[in-house]
């Protein structure tokens, strides 16, 4: 009996059609994963900025020499932070590009916020007419 390899070719054709039929689902899954990454990073950044704003408002209301430490969790992809005038801002990189997350206070803030991913303790100090925000 002679083997011609026909069954191997038929098997490869069936596998090819199966992969072709599944490819839209695989691409859709990747898009969903990208969306979840963007939503998660943006939400973590918004939570961090709002925590800083709330803490700064509390310390500013108490006045000099009030101080406290707040814990924030920064997402992966933070490219820049800015604490200046009345704005606390994080720039984050997502699969769709760069996004800005910020909070505006009714008083001046100054200082720095780290850009590295993970949990950070941030010290908030009332200096009278503004709040200083620094890594604890």
List the helices and strands and how they pair.
Blueprint lengths: L5 H57 L4 E8 L3 E7 L2 E8 L2 E8 L3 E4 L6 E9 L3 E6 L1
Parallel strand pairs: 5-7
Antiparallel strand pairs: 1-6, 2-3, 3-4, 6-7
Give a written overview of the molecule.
The protein has one helix at residues 6-62, and strands at residues 67-74, 78-84, 87-94, 97-104, 108-111, 118-126, 130-135. With 136 residues, it is of the alpha+beta class. The chain has one domain (6-135). The strands form two sheets. The chain has a four-stranded mixed beta sheet, with helices on one face. Strands 2-3-4 form a three-stranded antiparallel beta sheet, covered by helices on one side. The relative contact order is 0.17.
Features:
136 residues, four-stranded mixed β-sheet, three-stranded antiparallel β-sheet
Distance N to C terminus: 80 Å
- Widest sheet: strand order? 1-6-7-5
H-E order: HEEEEEEE
* Mean pLDDT over all positions: 87
Extended strand count: 7
Radius of gyration: 25 Å
Give unreliable regions as ranges.
Answer: none
Q: How would you sum up the major sheet? A: 4 strands, mixed
Helix content: 40-55%
Structural class: alpha+beta
Outline: rod-shaped
Provide the β-strand percentage band: 35-45%
Total count of domains? 1
Please give the count of helices. Answer: 1
